[in-house]
Amino acid sequence: xxxxRRFLICSIVSLAMTLTTGAASQAxxxxxxxxxxxxxxxxxxxxxxxxxxANYGTGVLVxxxxxxxxxxxxxLDSDVVTVVxxxxxxxxxxxxxxxxxxxxxxxxxxAEDLPFFNISDTAEVGPGALILAFSNVFKVATGDEPVSxxxxxxxxxxxxxxxxxxxxxxxxxxxxxxxxxxNNPGAAGGVLTTADGKLLGMLGRELKGTNNTWLNxxxxxxxxxxxxxxxxxxxxxxxxxxxAVADETESSGFQSIDFGFLLVPDVVARTPAYVDxxxxxxxxxxxxxxxxxxxxxxxxxxxxxxQTLQGVFQRLLPGDDLQLIVRxxxxxxxxxxxVPRKQ
Amino acid sequence: xxxxxxPQIRSKILGCLIVFGVSTLLAAKVSSGAGLTVSESVLQxxxxxxxxxxxxxxxxxxxxxxxxQGGGSGVLIDEAGFAxxxxxxxxxxxxxxxxxxxxxxxxxxxxxGIDPTGDVAMIQLLGRDDFPHAEIGDSDKVKMGDWTxxxxxxxxxxxxxxxxxxxxxxxxxxxxxxxxxxxxxxxDCIQVDASINPGNSGGPxxxxxxxxxxxxxxxxVEKRGRVNVGAGYAISINQVMNFLDHLKSGRIVDHATLGxxxxxxxxxxxxxxxxxxxxxxxLSGLRRDDELISFAGRPxxxxxxxxxxxxxxxxxxxxxxSYQRDGKRTDIVVRLAGLHRRAELVxxxxxxxxxxxxxxxxxxxxxxxxxMEPKAPEIPDEYKDLYExxxxxxxxxxxxxxxxxxxxxxxxxxxxxxxxxxNWMWAGTVNEETPVQFRLLTDVIAAxxxxxxxxxxxxxxxxxxxxxxxxxxxxLHQFKKLLQAPDxxxxxxxxxGSEPLDGTGDRVDVLISTKGLVTSRWYFDRDDxxxxxxxxxxxxxxxxxxxxxxxxxxxxxxxxxEKFHVRHARSEWGTIELQTFEAIAPEAGVGQ
Lengths: 343, 592
Fold this sequence. Notes:
By secondary structure, chain A is α+β, with helices and mostly antiparallel strands.
């Protein structure tokens, strides 16, 4: 108790110390912080341009040698991505690695001595903290124009509960939710910083919450740090297969038919994932899957309904394993599929 | 851990401090009632903001159509009641509208001038000569991250005319926004994250000191609906100031084109990709593939920057331009041409999509809260004479008044006698050595320059004579007609607005006259309304003959400029100094 109380007092003292400066800066312009952050944020131009799919986005420099972190989305689904630095210099970037679990991609451009964020030196804040958000919303900036900056307050730090179209979002870890409208078209890959320009999180793709409202959120860099470091260090690299399925459209993921079986019609909110039929001479038939098998686990995730199973299918990549555990009568049977290449 | 907090959070934390008895930390804090304790600096910042808002609120206008249905916002800029709003707010309202101020009163207002391309309009509130008004700031000093206040009448909430205030920061400056529809290109605008919503259109954007820095006019929208999504755009007040006198002219004013298109190369340079051979830029030497270095004093590093710069200037302004060819830099001043043909700008021509038409190209002009059917304007009897309908004008009344004022001043400057139909005989020198004589007769203009003669028959097409003047004889004839019969002689004669003389000088008021293909621009000092010079173009293919006056003196008993400085195609031709001036009735018969 004494320990915790002392800790509490200490942190309160340190909080109080920062209050005065925080208060003073409230009336002043944020232009100093803005000037610090801007050179480290880049504009991305790539695939897209169709309705509701922006062909522009944002990234953040995480190394002096041109490693750029951004959200892994359809924008990168082209051979090269055009990267425009704050000073208007143009580069062609290549995706060198991705981590679908945290929605992250790293792009590399051939450049040196660039301003960058040290991602192991990031801040953590709680609700009420003033924040700035930097991104190329609505493609307002091109060339050497700086990206847009917004201000707001952290509303909550919580788990992301969101969906993409009919599907749950792949990432469900910690996020900062903010009260500014930060996650507009083109904002994904932008940064959330403190009022004095310290790195907090990466603005995510446009997602709706479970109550059908658009979310304004960022994934903390503490979550992304390991993946970024691994990819930058070359411990994890992209394969072409990864990008082959990096498609934003909702129907592009795998379906049960890709493995040789069909599910019962998804008629209610929580339709149990019963196998309806198994197609002859497919992997499912070879492995011995049968009609009326109830899928209860998929890759370790509890399958509540056909929808959760489809969520798992969405995240599959060619070459992955798909492990299904089904209940047949009163037994559990395990099947392991190899995820095929999509035609 | 470093935490910056909202005032509420701070109070909670400070409340904890009391619990833990760290009372020494409270020395710098003051109590703000109800047991809350807030840092002095927070209270100060809050009080400053409150003071600023109470200072600027009286200048904010809620605009309604005559029946009080649709509407938007505006801001007063002087005590005579001139106010700025968006074109798309007053469009369809007719010549008169109703405006509410935060004093709770409704004022009649009359339309003054419109700029459909820039989405700006000027109205004048009536009934007072001491209107509260905003202090004009300098939008070029606005930086990203600055705090801003947007005031206006979003969703037409201000039933009592108390404007809504939203607070936010500057998200971007010098933004270029592509045209939505055919007009309404927003150039060099200010992007803010303060909430801008339907009804905010035309309302003011202030900096933290309460200076007017922009006119809120556009928002980015996409799938979230036509309300604020964190990106609003304000027309920079510096652009509005460039157009201010043009708007006061009562005209439908136009934006400018260089007569050339530019493109950016892979090395980042911006080069001329196409240029009209009739453009002033071409006549001044600019060619295809020349690299633009600066334009209007600002560096050009992208096509958008070029468009940004171009978009803030009215048709007809002269701006400096620097270009590079084969490593050699050339500095010129170019006269900008109009962006549209006149017919394109008058009502009935192409208009931008209304709020109900589908147009998913973000951003759009802020849609108005109510759809607006054009209604027959209810014109208050006492103000009926303040509105005159005329094609090409938003309200011809304001043009006529200013034109008459300048013509009156002209009479004061040159005396009444010059207004008779007389032949003029001048004699003097050019550049203090070459003797020169001019005969300005009713059918012919002639000059004897040293041993050379130049003649312009008035029933023939104007010629660029004498050589290298661009048409000095025609110019002098226009000048004579301006003094003698401005109302009858010219096919068109109107007040334009103001522009910096020769691109870089003091602002002068400008009248334009046309007669056949001959166009003249007459420049008036804005303080004492003296005519200080004029440019005459004999047709569209020739650069004008430019004449600038020296000080006024008396020549043979009549007030007249002691010198005429004559230029053409950016080079000095010479200075004419008159020694004698005879005016003789034509029937007296004058030998040549």
